[in-house]
Amino acid sequence: PLIHLTPTHLDHLNARFETMEPQAILQMCTLLFPNLYQTTAFGLTGLVILDMLHKLATPTSTSTSPAIPQQPELIFLDTLHHFPETYALVDRIKKHYSSAAPLTIHTYKPQSCSTAADFAALHNSPDLWTTDPERYDFLAKVEPQQRAERDLDVAAVITGRRRSQGGERGAMPVLEVVPADPADTNKGSSSMMIKINPLARWTFEQVKTYIDENGVPYNELLDKGYRSVGDWHSTSPVKEGEGEREGRWKGQGKTECGIHNKKSRYAMFLAEMARKEAEKA
C-alpha cells in the first residue's frame, strides 16, 4: 500500500508528536499506517519500543481490549557478523515475550549467505568491512533491508533512533517521509515510506531507566562498557564522557551504515548495479 502525506500534514503530525508520550505516538501510528513493521537490531531503544508495543497489544486487568489490535511484526537484519551476545539476546527476547502472543520476527541475511564464511567466500574477502566498507554496508545491511521491504510490502517502519545519539540524528523529527527502495519495480520512482522515531526526544538515561524498571532483557555487552552494539568488527566499548555511538566505526568518520541515510542507500544501490553490469561485460 502507498501512503501519501502532504508537507502540511507531515508538519501537523510532527508538531503533535513533539508533545506526546511515546506510547501515545505508537498507538496513533498503528492506527494510521498500514503494513507497519518495527526494524530492530535489539539495541536498548528498540527494546523499549518492543516492550511498549507488547504492553499496548496485551489486555490488562482493567481492560479486556488491548490499546492496539496487534503488535507490529519485527524485521531483524542478521548481518552474520553480530556478537554472540546479540544472538543470545534474540533468544532471550523470544522467551521473555512467549507467554502472550509470540513475537513474529522476520530475519533477513545477506543474499545467498547463511554464515559469515559464506559471505567471505561469495564476496572473495575475509574482511570486506575493511577493504570496501561502503560495499559491505550495502551487502550486509542495505540490500537485506530493501529485500525485506519488498517481500513484506512495508509501508511504514518504527525505528529506535534518538536525537541524543548525535550525528545525523541530532535534528531528526519523530515522523519522516523517505524515498522507498529504488529497486522495487512494483512502486513508482516517487514512492515514499514512513519512518517513525517514537523515542526521538529520549536520552540514553531515560531509555536505560525504562529497561531497568520494566525488567526488559538487554545485551550483556552493555554491562561491559558498550553503549551501542552493532557488528563485532566495528563496535568498541566507550570511555567515560564519550558519546553513546562513539564506539561505532571508531576512527572511520561515519555515524550511519547507510540504512537510515537515503542518499547513501541510493548511491550504494547504483554502485552495486554498476559493478554487476561491469562483471557481465
UniProtKB/TrEMBL annotation:
GO terms for cellular component: cytoplasm. Pathway: Sulfur metabolism; hydrogen sulfide biosynthesis; sulfite from sulfate. The lineage of its organism: Eukaryota, Fungi, Dikarya, Ascomycota, Pezizomycotina. The keyword Acetylation does not apply. Signal peptide: none annotated. It comes from Microdochium trichocladiopsis. This is Phosphoadenosine phosphosulfate reductase family-domain-containing protein. Residues 36-237 form the Phosphoadenosine phosphosulphate reductase domain. InterPro entries: PAPS/APS_Rdtase, PAPS_reduct_dom, Rossmann-like_a/b/a_fold. Belongs to the PAPS reductase family. CysH subfamily. Keywords: Oxidoreductase. Residues 239-249 have a biased composition (Basic and acidic residues). GO terms for molecular function: phosphoadenylyl-sulfate reductase (thioredoxin) activity. Residues 231-254 are annotated as: Disordered. One of its GO terms (biological process) is sulfate assimilation, phosphoadenylyl sulfate reduction by phosphoadenylyl-sulfate reductase (thioredoxin).
